[in-house]
Amino acid sequence: MGVIDAYRRVLRNGPLTRLLVGEFVSSIGDWLYLVALLVIIWTLSNDPLVLGIVGAARVLPYVVLSIPAGIVADRFDRRLILLTTDIIRGLLMLVIAGLVLANAPVILVVILAIVATCFATFFSPAIGAYLPTLVKDESELGPANSAWSSLDNLAFFVGPAIGALLLGLGSLPLAFILNAATFGVVAVVLLGLPAGRPIPPAAEEEIAKARSAPAAVVDRRSYRRPLVGLTVLNVATGFVFGGLGVITVVLALDVFHAGDAGTGLLNSAIGVGGVVGALVAGALVLRRRLAPPLVLGALLLAGGLVVLGGVDAFAFALVAMAVASGGSLLLEIVSTTLLQRVVPDAVRGRTIGVMETISVLAYSAGSFVLPVVGADQPGMVMIGSAILIIAASLVAVVLLGEWAVVEPVIAPAARRIAQVDLFAGLPPARLEAAMRAATIRDVAPGTVIINQGDEADFFYVIDAGRVEVTQVPPGGGQSRVLRQMGAGEVFGEIGLLTGVPRTATVTAMTKVTLAALDKSAFLELVSSGPGLTYSLLDLHRGGIQPAEA
Questions:
Q1: What's the pTM?
Q2: Domains of the chain
Q3: Fewer CB atoms inside 10 A, N or C side of the chain?
Q4: What gap in Å lies between CA 324 and CA 306, rounded to an integer?
Q5: What is the pLDDT of residues 40-67, one digit of tens each?
Q6: pLDDT tens-digit profile of 249-274?
Q7: 128-150 as b/e, with b when 16 or more CB fall inside 10 Å?
Q8: Nearest-angstrom CA–CA distance, 131 and 149
């Protein structure tokens, strides 16, 4: 009942609910836009080179603007950032719709699409930082993250499905107009919401510490070989998935003769497969051996590609596309988890940033190369891509060596962290990293764990035993008991999230076993945002920027 009550509280939080619904509508519009853009570029140009250029150029702004976008989100009102960029993107959609109606040169549509992407880079850091400011208390943060992830995933197949319907009716300009309308909906919602609070200086400093530790103490030779293996795998996966996302229009129109609507349905299949793949990967991420799910992901992606390139029936193509997308997401999540295990804490943040930037560049390259090469023989390109994925996965497994088969050192008590409602919807790899960073404390009965008025320094998860929470009223007087807590419950997050001193005293009633996260590890975890929508699907939609290096 605790989780259900938490979701009920989220629904009773009017501003938060309005934002979640508004962004769900906007996510559907993003997918409408993607499907319509691919079709209109191919229809106006019928040139695979132009299609490839658009596919690549649509992603590259994230490489250039990701870090500036994060800085802007930290320095200015997040609500104002979201409102400004949504209005500009909505106006650009209306201009694109007008160009399509006027049969304007395709180059004008391409230029405006790239400009729209430049403004889109500011979305993820701003919304990720703004959403937590709308929760009334810490109990709503986890359900809010989870609800955002769930709605975003739902949009992954609702949006392209609506796009397929519109395109089937021959309403290309209407897709852009509807996308503009979704930005209007979000703008109206944002106008009624409170301003986004800036990151407290103390919290910002702690997050910065977690992301930038001295690298001189790290022996790079200890992880260079497995890191090369992961790089090979990420480049191959990003390259193939980038090309797959763009070549859908060629497959739908020229191979399966499914009409404009076929492009929307293929993209919808990508969304469905990606959601399933993400959920499956979330269940596998703490396995003893990650080599089997890595190979499984490669086989699913490669098998889906082979079937996609060899079948004549469009229904089978949809299933193959979903399987390929699911395999791609499984590969991505497992490789991200392995990266968290392989790279030392001191250089993990910058390494992840570099790796994600490389993946974006590979995605962009695939978006350009595969449509150009595969316009005449897409079946052969699909088979070649499948071979590339299998080869890259085998190279990765060999170079990873024991990292792919050795269980990470995680104390049983630390695994409680993955079950905390506060962290619902966060990336599995981040959760595993937090579990490995946790310290385990055995506390004797009668020990004071937290003193009211002290500076907040740790977050605690109770693995065993019971504690009592007491508080002295602000005006002074007799201490009163607020509540008792047991296994699976948490405390200490209020001070870390708000920067205020401890609001209560926590004392062990029995022998207690705790999993503790220090301030920097806790803030790094909660700042990572929802994680069921992974970067390849987000890149395909045009809604993510690489992490800072």
A1: 0.74
A2: 1-200 (1.20.1250.20), 212-408 (1.20.1250.20), 412-526 (2.60.120.10)
A3: N
A4: 9
A5: 888 888 888 888 888 888 778 877 887 7
A6: 888 888 888 887 888 888 888 878 87
A7: bbbbbbbbeebbbbbbbbbbbbb
A8: 12
